[in-house]
Amino acid sequence: MSYRTEEIAYVQPAEPAAGARTAQQRTTAEYRALDAAHHVHPFSDMGALNRSGSRVIVKAHGVYLWDSEGNKIIDGMAGLWCVNVGYGRKELANAAYRQMEQLPYYNTFFKTTHPPVIELSALLAELAPEPFNHFFYCNSGSEANDTVLRIVHRYWATQGKHSKKVVISRKNGYHGSTIAGGTLGGMGYMHEQMPSKVENIVHIDQPYFFGEANSSQTPEEFALARAQQLEMKILEIGADNVAAFIGEPFQGAGGVIFPASTYWPEIERICRKYDVLLVADEVIGGFGRTGEWFAHQHFGFKPDLITMAKGLTSGYVPMGAVGLNDRIAKAIIENGEFNHGLTYSGHPVAAAVAVANLKLLRDETIVERVKTDTGPYFQKKLRDTFAHHPIVGEIAGAGLVAGLQLAEEPASRKRFANGGDVGGVCRDFCFNGNLIMRASGDRMLLSPPLVISKQEIDELVSKAKQAIDATATQLGIS
Ligand code: PXG
């Protein structure tokens, strides 16, 4: 019997009329009071938040969110970089519903498996570039990166190279918030609050041209120099001690930092020369964000391992995964037990939703459209709108992801002394203007659902311009 049961009747939630109160159980004030009383938010100053009150998001459709006051908000961040197919897709809800009825849970630890995880693995092997034919599952991007550390360590052990233990990552990279993910990431403010760090992880500098290049360097020269730091670090530690390098093809949370074309080929050359595994963290870049299925394809390099989450299920349910290329997979498969797993590794409901999600991305040619149509339109619109803006110093991105660098003097790359504050001011203007745009220090980030239409892109960019204009006015710059 196929695991696909009959289509169930499911009514697509109607888009609420603009300004309409949505059916909800409590008033905004009641929600806020209960939230403040009992809920601890991630990465938040709870004292300050409880004093100002959270915005209560009650429903969503396409690229729009509605709050408990009936405001319609355009979501320029696809949730948290994850809702690639947009909100309200009944195919995903149906897949979850059907799977919950048929087999809500079973594990794959003790000689069992189930159809959704089999279908998902086969589909991922079809969609990922050729050497990726094997996948390990978890619940998040952080867990995917924890898992990668385990796989890398195990791989070198199977090769008899027990000294290869050090993993090199980058300052201002983001790889999650578990102890291993947080250590891999290069966010100092996270390291400060950690009880301890995972051993054998070191960082090199990031390829952040606008903020860190000297005035005589071209973007290509700077990116090359930053990549060559990897070689220097390997030589310093000794190649026999270095297991892997991990990086996001473009840094997401760190500010949508797109390295120049010289960066990744040099990183790849160095990894190959010293027999260091290359890991691409595709948690944000994966599943169409740049117009390719994976961001490493956009930059033209070939990693040994890829970590995924977010767009794998478009955020409808949690799921993460690690893709192993054939060489790594063979070593893990043919050398006895791999002592790692999570209760929800390959969760049937998450896997069924992932399958439905990937089929939408493929069959509705959503990824292709980002590459050939909406992505180029979005990038051009941003450049047409902001190229000569008095406080925009750089427009980075490809496909449907972008970072706008706010700067005091764009031409000389002079940044605001209080950059994070300026980003925060701009973000508040966005929030009040019913636009979700993320601030990362002094960079404003956009990463909308991949189903966004050109008309919605026009609205997004026009609202972003209003917020950035208002920020400039507040700073007395015009
Ligand atoms: N890798 C990358 C590249 C990420 O962006 C993770 C790993 C961790 O994934 P999980 O699923 O464990 O969160 C991420 C997550 C932000 C923001 O504010 C970004 C992320 C998470 C939370 C907030 O930009 N990225």
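^ PXG complex. Residues 80, 140-142, 145, 174-176, 181, 248, 252-253, 281, 283-284, 309, 438 surround PXG (CB under 6 Å). The first helix runs from residue 28 to 38.
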